[in-house]
Here is the input.
Amino acid sequence: MATVAIELDRWTDRRRRTAVLRERRPFARDILDFYGALLSVQEDAYRDAAASPPPADRLPAYVSELVMPAVVGAALAAAPDALRLAISARTEEADLPGMVSSWMRGKAIPPVDTFLARAATSPVLEALGERAAAAFPGPRAERTCPRCGGPPQLSYFAPAGEDLATGPRLLLCARCHAGWGYARMTCPSCGENSGPRLPIFSEEGTAAGERGSVIRGLPAGVAREARSAVFPHMRIEACDSCRRYLLNVDLAGDPAAVPLVDELSAVPLDLYARERGFSKITTNLMGF
Here is the structure.
């Protein structure tokens, strides 16, 4: 019973953090409201898959039949107009099991297909835990998820143990949301580990910032006048060798943070990185 409670706490934490950040970051409110509408659907999918795990070879059919309709319904009710129209047009003709299968295999598919497959499949993969590996045969690379082979969506620093000065760095899988350890100051995209090739950008007022850059795109006057960062526990970790980046969440800097939600709301950081010619290793659920 305790294990079940711990597992379900992730959804409570995501809802709590979504509610907090939608008040704290008005510029991300539309994104967070839409994500909040999806959370109940995803939690139901997680609960159902945890209670009765689908076999690996049935995942595309399971997701398209039992999860996708609820995801589509939530999206049609709460998504931005452009996405709602795209989803309405796409689901009338789409091969939904094929869509899910293509996403699971990492194939290039249209953005609307990626959104639908990811929103519907990820909570099921989360519920399966280690059993999800059976749906993704083949070798694993150091820079991909050891469970499903998926790419990293973000990086985060876990709280340090009593005998450690700093906590370990982990990458969060964009497919199944599993975390795995990865060396600091090493690019998760190409493996570059030369410090001068790995610029780090953070806001003015961020204690851990190496460069003290003021991130353009924030609400006028917030960071510059108050001298306090909007994202004090976050930074951009980029690579000059492959020109890729991801966002990092420091849980020591904000123990209440939920990396999946905090990264989703940090659109100004994404815009700042892209203005400088970097592309994200993997965009988040909302395409940023």
